[in-house]
Amino acid sequence: KGRIRLRSFYARRFLRLTPPFALFMILLLTGITCSLYTVRPIGLIISFLYLYNYIPHFLLDGEISHTWSLAVEEQFYLVWPFLITLLPRRTLAMVALGAIALAVAAAYLLPLTKFYHGGHLYALRQVFPVDRWFFPAAGPIMVGSLVAVLAFQRPVATRILAMAAYALPLSAALFLSPLYLPVELLRAAFVFQAAGISLLLLTSTTPPFTTTIT
What we know:
Number of helices: 12
Radius of gyration: 20 Å
Strand order of the largest sheet: 1-2
Number of strands: 2
Shape: globular
């Protein structure tokens, strides 16, 4: 209807994510009580707060290590919806593009970052799984967000792209890019892969294509 209702949006996100996550936590705590698992309490708290993508290596527990991606998703939900409602539409594409650039820069720079602690020099990646931090991990999500914004702002151009004969082959080529990209570009492969998936979604939801396959 041309309106964005954040209250309804967050209610749907809550109902989609929180019940299964709460059930998982209950089952996990039951397993811990029965001595089936040994998960550190601090890890449980960090995971429950959707911050597990920032936990250091020495606190990682395999039983909840997968919740880092859920944390990235929740952090995205706390930022992007508000930007959509607050920023002019013409600015959104530039913001998304800037976020993608920041994710790529983080993918290259964070592993090289070092810091001093206790008189010793450490590489940041020795202490933290830096590839799971919001940047660069949110890069693929922001690629999808950029494509969504462009599809809304440039419907004719995106429809032409989606209906082009080369759309599906290009989507596959982008998704398979890690197989042929130079080693120097592999850290940025998530941009190409996310672009391929976005193009596939765009193509599969364009009416003529949908009509053809149904």
